[in-house]
Design goal:
Helices cover about 50% and strands about 15% of the residues. The protein has about 300 residues and is α/β, with parallel strands linked by helices. The strands form two sheets. It has a five-stranded parallel beta sheet with strand order 7-2-1-9-10, with helices on both faces. A five-stranded mixed beta sheet has the order 6-3-5-4-8.
Length: about 300
């Protein structure tokens, strides 16, 4: 069982979409996505610098658009993966890939999500830092003492802490034993109470969107389970804006359900890196550019042989 996974915020880099626009029809697709999201995604993915694409209102639709561009190229080139999952904002790409949402609705919602989360982040200066290694219990105890929230349980020995910047600075200055603290290039404490205003805005918009049952296995970040109802899947994604991402449980579910390979769509790399640590021995392909599609298609065909 080969599955496709879609990355979250922070995976974007300047110019990463340039090679994708060489595919026939990709530029036109991205222009349509731009209209739907309310962001010039062509310029963002090819011309804008790191600071400009770090803006939450830009980064989120840019990542989802890239994932769906690469998903379209993958599925046109070979067999479809047998399931999908997304990390944080990548869940919106997973909903579109599984047929729960149309691409147009996915881009419209992610554009709103990005703007609402950016606005929520302006109320208090907050951020996120990855805590790598150490004892999980000790890490969680330290975060609690500092008033920080474990926003992402990423598995592979990584927890992402989120909260106010002075507390994150204190965490870095006096990290739990055996850990490294790495500040992340994001503009707020996502998946925490600080994002509650964004949940309300997104919930109102999501209520007007048509959903369908997923046409493939779909995992949720809420607890790592699979979801077979489209409306419930969208409701969980909305609530996830202010709730922890349980990617660790998703990966545990992948193993329990016999996943034998993972393909990460663009902008790829982060989730295959986590899988290499938490799902040792499971083949992975990071589809960073169109040149990586052949390896992904080969993995899918080997699974069906």
């Amino acid at each position: 069982m080969i599955i496709a996974v879609f990355p979250g915020q922070g995976s974007q880099t300047p110019g990463f979409l340039s090679p994708w626009l060489e595919i026939d029809g990709a530029r036109e697709r991205l222009e349509a996505y731009s209209d739907q999201a309310g962001v010039d995604l062509v310029a963002a993915g090819t011309e804008w610098d790191a600071d400009r694409i770090r803006d939450t209102s830009v980064a989120q639709p840019l990542i989802v658009a890239a994932s769906l561009l690469s998903w379209a190229a993958l599925t046109a080139a070979g067999p479809r993966p047998s399931g999908v999952a997304g990390h944080s904002v990548g869940e919106i790409a997973a909903l579109a890939a599984s047929g729960v949402l149309s691409d147009a609705d996915a881009l419209s919602l992610v554009g709103l999500r990005g703007r609402a989360m950016a606005e929520a982040a302006q109320a208090v200066e907050t951020g996120m830092s990855a805590v790598v290694g150490g004892d999980e219990g000790a890490v969680l105890e330290r975060l609690d003492a500092l008033g920080l929230t474990p926003a992402n349980y990423n598995g592979g020995g990584q927890i992402v802490a989120a909260g106010e910047l002075p507390a994150l600075a204190e965490l870095a200055a006096d990290a739990p034993r055996g850990t490294r603290v790495i500040p992340l290039q994001v503009a707020g404490a996502f998946h925490t109470r600080f994002m509650e205003p964004a949940v309300a805005a997104l919930r109102d918009a999501a209520a007007t969107v048509e959903t369908a049952a997923p046409d493939t296995t779909l995992w949720t970040n809420s607890d790592g389970s699979t979801v077979d109802d489209g409306r419930r899947a969208l409701d969980l994604v909305v609530a996830q804006v202010a709730s922890p991402v349980r990617w660790d449980r998703c990966m545990a579910s992948f193993a329990a359900q016999g996943v034998t390979g993972i393909i990460e769509l663009a902008p790829a790399g982060a989730l295959t890196g986590l899988a290499k640590r938490a799902l040792r021995g499971t083949p992975t392909v990071a589809v960073k550019t169109p040149d990586d599609l052949d390896a992904a298609v080969s993995l899918l065909k080997e699974d069906q042989a």
